[in-house]
Amino acid sequence: MYVLNDLYLNAHFRNKNIGAALINKAKALCKEKGYKGLIIQTEKTNPAQHLYQREGFVLDEDLSFFGGLIEIWLLYLINNF
């Protein structure tokens, strides 16, 4: 399992498919290394939640940290590419 802990884009670079490209690069790396999944840890208020959903991530409602401020988005890569 690979954890993508900090993915930040300056506001000037948002909504230009750069975030999706970076996530797809992380997916490719996971596949190349034979990892079973990719996790993104994000704050609940992160404006990129829709990006994670669009890229196939699913919010794990059972996992949260720091009093519920941090959410976990999971993407299991087994046969999902």
From TrEMBL:
It holds the Pfam family Acetyltransf_7. SUPFAM superfamilies: Acyl-CoA N-acyltransferases (Nat) (SSF55729). Residues 1-79 form the N-acetyltransferase domain. It comes from the Bacteria. Gene3D superfamilies: 3.40.630.30. This is N-acetyltransferase domain-containing protein.
